[in-house]
Amino acid sequence: MTRHPPAIPPQFEDEFITGLRAIFEEKIVFNSVLGLQVVELRPERVVGRIAMKPELVGHYSFNRLHGGVISAGLDAMGGLAVMAAIGARHMDEAPVQRLHRFGKLGTIDLRIDYLRPAIGDAFELRAEVLRLGSRVASTRMEFLGSEGRLLSTGAGAYIIS
């Protein structure tokens, strides 16, 4: 049996990273309202950050991030991971062409498990694609506190037609 070394994921061009960051942080207005920022954008994994703001806390808890914000953040990061995976799949195209492939991306299933209260000043969100099919992508996401403690997990399915 011949062993093959693991494939090295392609590296994105600066133009693609800048364009995808602009789509995610600016053109998707809800992400802008949440304050979601892209920290790392690689073909196999994306990392984001969200800072605590007074308007993001729950109505009855003045120091905990609202569960809806956690869910929306994880959903957005799952979508970003799919965008990165699609971009990596089509590296033969120019960056601007790849950036036009995301118009019909949408969530079709989302599961969030809240493990601990989200208390802190800033949070890290991570996402990766488990499977990228021709029509549906499956993702796994994590929501961590500033000290790296796992606070919530998520799994999502996205239509990529």
TrEMBL record:
Residues covered by the Thioesterase domain: 63-150
GO molecular-function term, one example from the UniProt record: fatty acyl-CoA hydrolase activity
Protein name stated in the entry: Medium/long-chain acyl-CoA thioesterase YigI
Reaction equations catalysed: a long-chain fatty acyl-CoA + H2O = a long-chain fatty acid + CoA + H(+); a medium-chain fatty acyl-CoA + H2O = a medium-chain fatty acid + CoA + H(+); a fatty acyl-CoA + H2O = a fatty acid + CoA + H(+)
Gene3D superfamilies tied to this protein: Hotdog Thioesterase
Enzyme Commission number(s): 3.1.2.20
Coiled coil start-end: none
Originating organism: Ramlibacter cellulosilyticus
UniProtKB keywords: Hydrolase
Family stated for the protein in its record: Belongs to the YigI thioesterase family.
Lineage: Bacteria, Pseudomonadati, Pseudomonadota, Betaproteobacteria, Burkholderiales
Matching InterPro entries: HotDog_dom_sf, PAAI_dom, Thioestr_dom
